[in-house]
Structures are given as C-alpha cells and as structure tokens.
Prior knowledge:
By secondary structure, this protein is of the alpha/beta class.
Amino acid sequence: xxxxxxxxxxxxxxxxxxxxxxxxxxxxxxxxxxxxxxxxxxxxxxxxxxxxxxxxxxxxxxxxxxxxxxxxxxxxxxxxxxxxxxxxxxxxxxxxxxxxxxxxxxxxxxxxxxxxxxxxxxxxxxxxxxxxxxxxxxxxxxxxxxxxxxxxxxxxxxxxxxxxxxxxxxxxxxxxxxxxxxxxxxxxxxxxxxxxxxxxxxxxxxxxxxxxxxx
Length: 215
C-alpha cells in the first residue's frame, strides 16, 4: 500500500471524483474530512470504494464515550479503512472507541499541526492512546521518531504537514515527504501540494516517487 494519503479537502463531489480517478495510480487511501463529508456523505465514500480505494474518515471524534463508540460503529458500517478521534477526549473515550469489534483503524490526533506544542505533550498523548488500544496517532513530522521510540514500531504514525518545498501557510510543524518517511512515518497526508498543483496527477506521482526512493 502506498504511504501517501491524499486529503480530499474540496467542496465539490465532481472535483473529488476527478482527483480520485486521476491520482489513483499513486494513491491508495483518500482522506475525507468534514468539508466533503458534509457535502456528499455516503456518496463520496461509495465513489472512492467503487474506484477500488480506501477511505480515511477524518472527522476527529471528540465527545462523551458512548457517543464516540456509537460513531465508530456507524463508521464501521461504511466500510472505511481508518478514522480519527481526539486524544484529548481522555482515557475513557479512547477505550470506548477502541472496544468496537471489527472496527476501522483508529488514529488519535495528538496536537494539530497548525498549533505549537512540545514533544513531551505529543508523547504523553501518544502513550495514552496506545495504552487505550488505539492503533496509532496523527503527529507532525517533528515527533515521528520520538513516538516510534516510545510506542514501538508497530504503532502507526500518520503525518500531516507534508510540504515538498518550503511553503507559507497555516502549517507550523512541517517536513518534506522524504524526511517524514525516513523518520518512520507509516503514512503521510498530503493536501494542497497536490490539490493546488497545475497537474495533480503529476504532483502525486512526484511525491510517490520521492517516498519510494527512501523506503
């Protein structure tokens, strides 16, 4: 499975469909967040699955344990590959999420890459997530090696904030695809560098080639 996840952070179903079809040779998992899910719901999930690809549902569940558990059960029925919860929801919520049988992979958000933080805070949240039975965390490129050291190689680290070159935007903790994979990222999440490219398929190919060169 390719390590690059494409974030379908677009409003329009047709645009999302074209992106999936154009980048499918290089992308196996597509991230669906609240923008697109609120627009297209189950239709977008079906379209991605019909193209033979997996869905990472990035709705960042954070609520009372029973509500999060039922949300995971509903997501399971969609046949998605993985989803996110917020680690700040705490031990009881994380355990309730992880307890769902035959569920998708659960990746807990440590600290958003638009925020500043300390490595200690990220590690604290990652260790809590692991102790609760969660499959991995969403973590910036700057903490990948520390998370792997503290939580083990089998604990997934999924890394947003990927930029092929230095960019001026709202992401503060970023790295190149090569640096993230070399540090141990299991998956990298890429959005704007592909979505805003003149040729998204070529941009996806370029990132995929760069990742494979250091795997």
